[in-house]
Amino acid sequence: MYANPGTARGNVTQLRRYADAVAATGGATDTAAYDNLGNVLTQSSGCCQQMAYTFTAATKFAYPTTVVRGDTTGAQLTTSATYDFNTGLVRTATDVNAQVTTYQHEAETLRPEIITSPDTSQTTIIYEDNLVTNPSTGRMNTFVKTQDEITDAMTVIDYTYRDGRGAVTRVFKDDVRGSTANSTDARRAPATSMWGN
Predict the structure, then answer these.
(1) I need a labelling partner for 81 at 20 to 30 A (CA). Which of 32, 133, 136, 163 fits?
(2) Given this model, what pLDDT does residue 49 score?
(3) Which range is most confident: 74-88, 148-162, 168-182?
């Protein structure tokens, strides 16, 4: 017969650490509190440092929307995030300085595709899942191209080639200036190459 366990969930609420475990002296206690779903609401370390998490109905209480950390009687820092309801992937992340980073993901694979920093600079990630010829080995590889648009006049592009096992076979960086950044062919070997094994 099933018996309602009440509020008992089996979550660890207290952990005591000792400088001298044999004598059980010099201990510091970490504590945690949970909601009915098992989400951590607060965590504290030692005397005063605490992290507090907020869960809301907007995410069905699945992901923390804000995290507050710091001295419970003094200065505290707050970060927050918004999520895609269907996938749980982070859409925006706000740091302690209220600076917002946004994330876009591929619809088919849910891999990160475009990351926009608070200063509006962007990182674009392009996945070449079809096999292409690795210029250094002549073998067929997949690759990932990461394009960091530092400024309107400066873009840094990284290429990582992988074999069928997923092992990295070639890595190089391309420092592109001006409008040519968008037309760089990921299959070519630029003069500033760094070759993998």
Answers:
(1) 32
(2) 85
(3) 74-88
Name the phi and psi angles at 105, rounded to 5.
-125, 150
DSSP string, 4-63: --TT------EEEE-SBTTTTBS-EEEEEEE-TTS-EEEEEETTTEEEEEEE-GGGTT-S
Half-sphere exposure of 73 (CA within 13 A, CB side): 2
User: Does 50 have pLDDT greater than 50?
Assistant: yes
Kindly compute the dihedral angle of the four CA atoms of residues 111, 117, 120, 125, in this order, to the nearest 10 degrees. Answer: -30
Nearest-angstrom CA–CA distance, 34 and 41? 5
C-alpha distances in Å from residue 84, one per residue of 62, 88, 118, 141: 11, 5, 20, 32
For residue 180, count CB atoms less than 10 angstroms from its CB and return exposed for 0-12, middle for 13-18, buried for 19 or more: exposed
Cα–Cα nearest to 124, from 145, 153, 154, 108: 145
- pTM, two decimals, is 0.72
Show the tokens assigned to 67: 């995290």
Q: Render pLDDT for 105-152 as a digit per residue (tens, 0 to 9).
A: 999 999 999 999 999 999 999 998 888 877 767 788 888 999 998 777
Nearest in space to 81 (alpha carbons), one of 60, 105, 100: 100
